């Protein structure tokens, strides 16, 4: 379960919202546990083995695995900070009928005939989920607190786009 760490993870957590869905929080906890109990011990053993071979200056196994160990340690530190800082947002019946954090929203652009189904989540849940959007994105900000049938104007660099909200659902 190797995951390339995006460059943007070096940004402080305060630059984006600190909310996360319960599913996203569990995935982060599982990732931290996997790295700590499976990947890191394996890489540490490889570094020890490569170091025992003697001359480290030309030992590619040693250099590669030391680099990998640094990457894993950086990810562990980042995940520990995240798990302490994030606020898990559970579904509440008062959200029903409005676009709020964690909602699955189906939107349609009537001009161009596009339909999309998106889930509004926190930044850390985006990797690997093409139908998720960050709650900090212009689309999500425009959709927040709107209802089914509302039309929303999303201002982008390419111009304004008008979307109609067709449905709103929550995972309960």
Describe the structure.
Residues 95-170 form the Transcription elongation factor GreA/GreB C-terminal domain. Keywords: DNA-binding, Elongation factor, Protein biosynthesis, Transcription, Transcription regulation. Residues 19-88 form the Transcription elongation factor GreA/GreB N-terminal domain. GO terms for molecular function: translation elongation factor activity. The protein is of the alpha/beta class and 172 residues long. It has 3 helices and 7 strands, in the order βααββββαββ. A 5-stranded mixed beta sheet has the order 5-4-3-7-6. The radius of gyration is 21 Å and the shape is elongated. The chain starts with 18 loop residues before the first strand and ends with a strand.
Shape: elongated
Largest sheet: 5 strands, mixed
- Which strand order does the major sheet show? 5-4-3-7-6
Specify Rg, calculated over alpha carbons: 21 Å
Number of strands: 7
Helix/strand order, N-terminal first: EHHEEEEHEE
- Strand composition percent: 15-25%
Uncertain spans: 7-11
- End-to-end Cα distance, whole Å, is 28 Å
In quaternary terms, these chains amount to: single chain
Structural class: alpha/beta
Q: What's the pLDDT, averaged over the residues?
A: 87
Q: What's the tally of helices?
A: 3
What share of residues is helical?
25-40%
Organism: Marinifilum caeruleilacunae
Protein name: Transcription elongation factor GreB
Pfam families: GreA_GreB, GreA_GreB_N
Keywords: DNA-binding, Elongation factor, Protein biosynthesis, Transcription, Transcription regulation
